[in-house]
C-alpha cells in the first residue's frame, strides 16, 4: 500500500479519536454539572418556600403584585420625593424640627438676656456695693454679668444660667408654656445626661421629680435656692478676692475720678 494512503488513514483515525474524546469529555462534564445545577434550583425553591412560611401573604416569584393606594402610606420610603407620600418618618422629622425650633427660641431668649447684661457697664458705686453682699451683686444686672464671666473661668457658668432660667420661669402664667419650659429646664440643667447639669442633692431632685408630674411656676424653687446658696458660699468669696473684681473696681474708680 502506498505510503501516502497509510498517512491519510492514520490522520483520519486520529481526527475521529479526538472528536470522540471531546464528545465524551463534554458528556462527562455535563453529568457532573447537571446535578449541581439541579441542587441549586432545589435549594432556591426551599429558601423561597421558607420565606413564604415566615412572611404570611408572600406571593410566589413571577407574580407581580400591584400595591394598593391604602398600603402606600405604610410602605412609603423616607427618601420619596413626592408630596403626596404619607410617610410617617416625615411626620417625625417635622415634629423634631419644631421641637428644636422651640428649644432654640427659648435658649436664645434665656441666654440672650444674660448676654445683654454683659454689655452693661457698672458704676464705681455699684461695684463697691457688690462687695457688701451677694444679694446686692445678684440684684444688679451688671453684677450678674461680671459674676457670670468669673464663673465661666471656673467652668461653672451653668449655675448662673440655671438661676436666670428659673427667674424667668417663675414669672410665667400660661399653663401650656409652663409645662414646656419646665421640661426644657429639666433636660438642660437637672438631667444627669445633660452637659450643663447643676449640682443638686437627692432630696431636691426627688422634689423636682414629683413636681414635674404637674409642673407649676414654683417647680424649681428649691433647686434655685440651693444653687443660689452654692454660689453664695463657694463662688462669691473667690470672686471678691479675684483679680477680675479688683481690676474692675480699680478701673471704674479711676474713670469716676477722671469724670
UniProtKB/TrEMBL annotation:
Which PROSITE patterns has this protein been placed in? PROKAR_LIPOPROTEIN, RGS
Q: Which domain of life is it from?
A: Eukaryota
Q: What UniProt keywords are attached to this protein's entry? A: Membrane, Transmembrane, Transmembrane helix
Name of encoding gene? LOC113045525
Ranges that cross the membrane: 12-36
Annotated RGS domain residues: 133-249
What name goes with this protein?
Answer: Regulator of G-protein signaling 20-like isoform X1
